UniProtKB/TrEMBL annotation:
Residues 131-166 form the EF-hand domain. SMART domains: EFh. PROSITE patterns: EF_HAND_1 (PS00018), EF_HAND_2 (PS50222). Keywords: Calcium, Repeat. The keyword Plastid does not apply. The keyword Cell inner membrane does not apply. InterPro entries: Centrin_CML-like (IPR050145), EF-hand-dom_pair (IPR011992), EF_Hand_1_Ca_BS (IPR018247), EF_hand_dom (IPR002048). PANTHER family: CALCIUM BINDING PROTEIN. This is EF-hand domain-containing protein. It comes from the Bacteria.
Length: 184
């Protein structure tokens, strides 16, 4: 059973991914959100674009495999939360779905090859994904654990893991998409 904190986070992700706002997740929603993420990569960066899209489509396939009672390939928020806990964040699936997106993003955005994201790169990324700059700027401060002014690949991965897997309300990774107070 997901914790209250995970339910809050998964509900936020559901709302973010529900690109047409109809209260259901569909393949079209996943393709659209994957398109927003892949658009962050340089036009010629097919490797990371493919990695991100593949991870999103893997995530969608996990949702469909675990779906119950909705034959038209629509996932409700309640189903999404249940499937996130039972399947997507399971160790055998998490890396290929959520981890694959994180790695593709870092690869796409780390254009100077230093293995990290600057505040500007981080804020620009989330702004393009619909997260306001004020929110992502504050999140950056909390996720830059070593105070270097950069979020390393390891720090970003740690934030992803904490956001999806941690029940600790004080974990810095909970700030991945902004303040938990903003989540409904």
């Amino acid at each position: 059973m997901p914790t209250e904190l995970q339910i809050k986070k998964f509900s936020y992700v559901f709302t973010w991914f529900d690109q047409n706002g109809d209260g259901w997740l569909t393949r079209g929603d996943f393709e659209k959100i994957a398109g927003l993420f892949t658009a962050l990569a340089d036009e010629k960066d097919q490797k990371n674009k493919i990695a991100i899209k593949t991870a999103f489509m893997h995530w969608w396939s996990l949702l469909l495999k675990a779906e119950v009672g909705t034959p038209d390939e629509k996932i409700s928020k309640e189903e999404f939360i249940r499937i996130m806990e039972s399947s997507v964040i399971a160790p055998e699936n998490f890396e290929n779905a959520v981890g694959g997106i994180a790695d593709g993003l870092i690869g796409a955005l780390d254009r100077d090859g230093n293995g990290s994201l600057s505040r500007e790169e981080y804020v620009r990324m989330y702004d393009a994904l619909g997260v306001p700059p004020a929110t992502s700027s504050e999140a950056f401060k909390r996720l830059d654990r070593d105070g270097s002014g950069q979020i390393s690949h390891a720090e970003f991965r740690q934030a992803i893991v904490e956001f999806y897997l941690s029940a600790d309300k004080d974990a810095p990774g909970n700030w991945l998409l902004g303040s938990m107070d903003a989540f409904k």
